[in-house]
Amino acid sequence: MQYKLLNFSTLLFGLLFIITSVSCDQLSKTKKTTNQFDKSGKKYSIVPETTSVFWTGYKTSSKTPVKGQFMKLNITNPKQANTAKEAIDGIEFSIPVSSLFSNEKSRDTKLKDFFFKVMDQTEFLSGNLNVENDTLINVSLKMNGITKTIPMSYFLNGQMLSMQGKIDLATWNAQNALTSLHQVCKDKHTGEDGVSKTWSEVGLSVESYLKVE
Description:
With 213 residues, the protein is of the alpha+beta class. It contains four helices and twelve strands; from the N terminus they run αββββαββαββββαββ. Residues 1-40 have low confidence and may be disordered.
């Protein structure tokens, strides 16, 4: 009887050894497969051709929105990354002010001549993106010779990046430029209450379809 118990124990130990060996072998293969996938995974990058930068200004006491966009964006340090999040982190950009478009030629001319040209070093708006966490990007923006950081919320859905935020032009000492713009737009910025107002707040949004290779 003791012999049978010993024999059974030996058999049970042998089975456990075989199962453990197989499991470890399978785990090792899984790790190798995962590593191989990571090394040969797709690469993400942000490209100007599929990126749009929109802005929203405001006029009148009731804060009537005036919308437009910049038609050109330059990426000065293009890169590829293993994830969409890594692809946008650290990206440097410049935006030619001349590419401003609001679907009204006279307004575009006023914005370029009586707003941006009143400021210093504004042939380009420039800066970089720094991903803070899964919902926040800190955008460093240089305008009027001054660099400030804008917190912008963002959302990634596969290859699609959406960013939202706002700025106060006073932060970039742009009061003189804003006053200059207001003077030439005074009539069009007058609301039903008879008050003419140009707001210093500007909404910003970015839409980008990331490239995947």
